[in-house]
Write a structure and sequence with these properties.
It is a single chain. The chain is of the alpha+beta class and 104 residues long. It has 4 helices and 6 strands; from the N terminus they run βααββαβββα. The strands form 2 sheets. Strands 2-3-1-6 form a 4-stranded antiparallel β-sheet, sandwiched between helices. Strands 4-5 form a two-stranded antiparallel ribbon. α1 packs across α3.
Length: 104
């Protein structure tokens, strides 16, 4: 029997404008150095939606949410200036995440 992976969606705000592709690459590097290749493969992190220049939604397999948030905290700068990430909300679906955060 094949089971579908349970995912968690995390609403994140950055302190500076950043695009989804840059987040994906920087987060991948941070997660690989923090967790290792096997944990990174199990977490399967992905930026699924960019709400505006500073806000985006990340998807991760359930159980890896805390590691993802911790890896985000290791990203301290973006080229020319400092950068910080703030986790606003976590949920099991994008619809519930947007509803709970008041964005949807």
């Amino acid at each position: 029997m094949i089971f579908r992976a349970k995912r968690r969606y995390i609403l994140v705000r950055s302190s500076a404008p950043i695009n989804a592709i840059t987040i994906q690459y920087r987060l991948g590097d941070s997660l690989l150095s923090f967790m290792g290749a096997e944990e990174y493969a199990n977490a399967m992190p992905k930026v699924v939606k960019q709400m505006d220049d500073n806000t985006f939604i990340m998807r991760v397999n359930r159980g890896s949410e805390r590691k993802l948030v911790l890896a985000l905290s290791f990203i301290k700068n973006l080229g020319s200036g400092p950068l910080g990430f703030y986790t606003l909300r976590t949920s099991g679906s994008i619809a519930a995440l947007l509803r709970k955060s008041g964005m949807g």
